[in-house]
Structure prediction request, 798 residues.
Amino acid sequence: MASEESFGVLVHHRGSIKTKTRSGVKFTDKDPLCIVVKPTTSYDDLVRSVLMKLGLEGAKRVKKFFYRIPITVLQDTVKYDCFTIGSDEDLQVMFLCRRQFPEVRTPELLANSRPAVASSSVPVYEPAVEPVASPSFAVDLNDGVGDVVGSVDILPNALQGVPPVGVGDGVLGDVEEDDVEPDMIEDDSGDEVGATEPALVVGGSSSGTQQYPPHFSSLDLDAMRQEGVSGHSVGFGARDAEGTAGLTEFQVGQQFQDKDEALLSVKTYSIRRRVQYKVVESDHRRYVGKCSEFGNGCTWLIRLSLWKRKGIWEVKQYNGPHTCLATSISSDHRSLDYHVISAFVMPMVRADASVSIKVLLNATAAHFGFRPTYRRVWMAKQKAIALVYGDWDESYNELPRWVLGVQLTMPGTVAILRTSPVRVSGQVDESQAFFHRLFWTFPPLIQAFLHCKPLVSIDGTHLYGKYGGTLLIAIAQDGNSNILPVAFALVEGENAESWSFFLSHLRQHVTPQPGLLVISDRHNGIKAALEAPDGGWLPPSAYRAFCIRHVAANFSLTFKGKDARRLLVNAAYAKTEVEFDYWFDILRSEDPAMCEWANRIDYSLWTQHRDEGRRFGHMTTNISECVNSILKGVRNLPVCSLVKATYGRLAELFVRKGREAEAQMGTGQQFSQYLVKCIEANLKNSRCFTVTLYDRDNSEFTVAETTPTGSFSLGTYRVSLASQTCDCGYFQALHFPCQHALACCAYSRVTWSSYVHSVYQISSVFRVYQMGFTPPIPEGFWPPYDGPTVIPDPAKRR
Prediction:
């Protein structure tokens, strides 16, 4: 019995991992060790056996092994990938695979011998270029220091952010890409929320359509003055290693442009001195402040007054410096209110409206030496955004005029504003209306979608400003794998009514084509809207598919662990039923309940091998990529600045992408760069094929893949040029010839270009961006609006 259970394992210890082979992963060591193991062998036993065989016990350490795992067996062809073994549980995968793949009797492992200290000798993992059938897996003799091979946690290419050839989007990652702010900002008892002092007037307005450079890492007084906080001689500019030693005192006669600037100077001086002061008198003509210890050993006092004739503020009396000791031993300071913080963070917010509260809080603490509360910095950021992009509340009332203005600028623009009534004492106030929803799209986007792939991704993302809400986006993709938002909606949140509002207008104005695929998450509101009898989204008019990122996220809520999640995603990405069954069997061996969970979802909704080619290889909604690349920062803006930003950002995108496509057409290119790269990769891997023709019309073939010497077959695939299908699954999934179809075209002496979907033609890509945007008409020339004042719903205030 023991002899039946025991088997040999080849352990390579001087080679590396190679993936650019027809069999997938390959180990290059030609002189491996043979280690006898059995199903009861533990991971520590295997490590000990390898080191003893090498005579390196005590001199080397093993951190992990890399297993050349079989992933698909088609007839006499075996494809391999690479699996990391670092525990007893991982080792059981090897035993399981040996039972499931009797064709592979001798497992292979890779171990690089290393000293018990850090070394630069590591297995080299070469990124895959060819479209492999599935994932990847291999042994690292290391002590854990500088674990370079940690990246070989290899699963399908798509899981590592490098999609297989022909797939335009990555798979896993956070759906929300930014530093998410909480919906409820906790109260800050130490903050002057109800302060009556006027707001600081800092900086001017902005269109909100500029490109945002990276965050500033440090700011000084000069930067603040450039934003409009320029006093003639303020007393808080000097800082040195001694803290307050270099501070400049106020001078009688010192002038400030307005009261806000004067208050900012006094507060910042107090913060720098680490002392507290109290306001004795403050109105529209004078301001008097005294040290909190005034009359108790300190005589510090400042009196400022308005010089009416010049409209400036001036120091009339000053008793300084402080004669008391610095009394602030707290980590916060009373004078460091959100007005002061807003003036400081203004340049950062102007540069990038999406800068996180954590970044602003840390910058404020580093600059002032005190750490304010999260809520105070959040309020400071909202104030800074309002000063740059417009008042949060007034922004809602600007929307009706923007609708009129943008429709005058670009006739054909669709902008549909919905409001709800305001009730005062039970009566409807006709002079006001709450903002409810807004749908908008522009004529270039409507025309662009006609030349994109016949699919649309829909998703929602939260707003991060003073008022909550959700931005719904419909995203298309051109034949060069560029993502393009084609419609937007601002709604109260994701529910059946808001999704119905968005999808009905999307269908009516942007995507009326039959047979369209909609990729989304599993939100019940989307389901209800798509299944509405009169919505136009039911088959065969349209079809639905799930974003695998969201499916995997839902799966992880029930089943913990990254490995199980990756197995599910691998199964979803499989382009053939054989490959899908392989991953599903492994998932079942982990926990049958996982397969039961997945089986509750129709395979056509989440797997690629059952989608009938409608996905074009796209498995996610691309919402994160769209927000990061095109709409960065807009979720942090007041609503009117947000919708203006979509116009400006898209106008810039159309110019840039349109020029790129036009330049490629000028060089005589027929297809997009993306398609050309995929075809070149497939041609590179279609050299050792034997093609057999099966009909007179040159349309039905078999392709036998062999080794370069022709001595070993790697598999046989049926190819139909007439129906544009191949047993490998790539031809029908991606709508351009796979390596086997290319071999058939070469055999029949026909051009492969006739089997490429028209969306990949460079002329189609150019037509996506052919219609440009019109420069916006200045707001002063917008038509007047005489309807009720649109105001934000106070229930949506964050």
Remarks:
- Residues 639-666 form the longest helix (28 residues).
